[in-house]
User: Fold Glucose-6-phosphate 1-dehydrogenase from Rosa chinensis.
Amino acid sequence: GPTANVLDAELVETPANKGFSPFLETEKDKSTLSIVVVGASGDLARKKIFPALFALFYDDHLPQNFTIYGYARSVMTDMELRNVISRTLTCRIDKRENCEEKMNQFLKRCFYHSGQYSSEEHFLELDSKLREKEAGRRSNRLFYLAIPPDVFVDATRCAKHRASSENGWTRVIIEKPFGRDTESSRELTRTLKQYLTEDQIFRIDHQLGEELVENLLALRFSNLVFEPLWSRNYIRSVQLIFSEDFGVEGRGRYFENYGIIRDIMQNHLLQILSLFAMDTPVSLDAEDIRNEKVKVLRSIKPVELKDVIVGQYKRHCEGNVCYPAYTDDPTVSNDSLTPTFAAATMFINNSRWDGVPIMLVAGKALQSKRAEIRVQFRHVPGNLYNRNSGTDLDKATNELVLRIQPEEAIYLKVNNKVPGLGMRLDRGDLNLLYKSRYPREFPDAYERLLLDAMKGERRSFIRSDELEAAWAVFTPLLKELEEKKVVPELYSYGSSGPVGVHYLAAEHNVRLG
Ligand code: NDP
Assistant:
């Protein structure tokens, strides 16, 4: 019956998913979408962007008239580009019989133009090729800058001056890093805004496209049971953990210049934290959500050195197998002080979160790969069951875990009586394991975000004032670490990180997850 339908989460239509197809019927035939992947020869383009575009095509999310252009300096023919990208396309969602055919249809719409990122002339050549495909229709153009940050501005200038749409919209997706501190980020924003309006800039943070992160607001604001507990009154501590079980693997040159705080914490973890901690937005509109995110980011006190542990992974051998140290990377100097691990305790200076320690933990070459939010609740006042049982009061508190990766899940640790004649409690999980509840494979984060950019949905992209607020949290710390040449604590490749993190956690009564 209708009541049952309404209760089924999958069927509830929110303003955000209403009219899911980005293109109105009437516009279908008239407009055309040109997607230009700048840096098409690179790693990100091959591994993420082209496969995501194919998945969208495969699921009928691209408009009827679309063209994809790869652009980079490497010399390649259209056929060569198609060969390269065809190797990474998969038909993973609802594998249908016509996959092969769909791939061929998709590849036929992919073209390549070779040019320099700073050459307006080369972008003009691209423009005339795009016009040919657009055949006089109203054209919308989406540029994806999958290039190193030092050529962002050049490519934006050229795209704006020589290849933007004359009768439709032009949007530019930009990848991190958005600067390396407050000043450089501000400068990047200032220069980009010489060519584009804020509305045309889509700063991507792929964590915001993860299913569980998207779900954070739904979980908080569509369930009565969580929101009343979501404050200092009931929450004792929060952890945001992002760990990888591999090292820099060939990306040493990039990493050496940024380090883990800039690579993971200042962007991915702070973004997740802002969705976790923000107040109720006026609506689900992008600007309402981003307004709340900025507010909470601006309420975070800049992180202090005393509340931080930095680490760097060292060589570790098991029998004959050895895993390299960070400094074994040929592009990294032997005396590098770049942190590959960091843990930071921070506080949000507002009435909701005052005094609640929030611990951000990020690291490479650790024992596991995972991204999680762990919320530890206070103990039950006057808990009857802790008095004589010898149970550790601290360990018996509730904990809510939101596991973003791998194996998406939301689980709540609760105390439960062990069945039997005695009165003994143990801890069990109320567990919403995604793979059993939602067995269908989910779209990759890049698919969701690309589709959002095509729709003009800005909710999951970072506005410039958010970026500014996020840098303000970490810039003083980053300066101090560098000025004082703080030596990172070494930890073995594949371990649980530097020992210091346990002291930091204990100081604020955080039970490490
Ligand atoms: P790549 O190093 O693979 O570079 C992409 C392309 O840019 C290359 O194929 C090359 O194309 C061109 N390029 C490389 N170095 C230079 C240079 N010094 N000057 C001018 N052009 C150059 O980068 P990725 O694909 O890994 O990443 C692209 C962007 O996305 C970067 O900003 C990165 O920080 C960001 N990013 C990447 C992620 C990933 O998983 N790889 C994840 C998150 C963000 P050609 O020589 O043909 O012009």
The first strand starts at residue 31 and ends at 38. Confidence is low (pLDDT under 50) at residues 1-21. The radius of gyration is 24 Å.
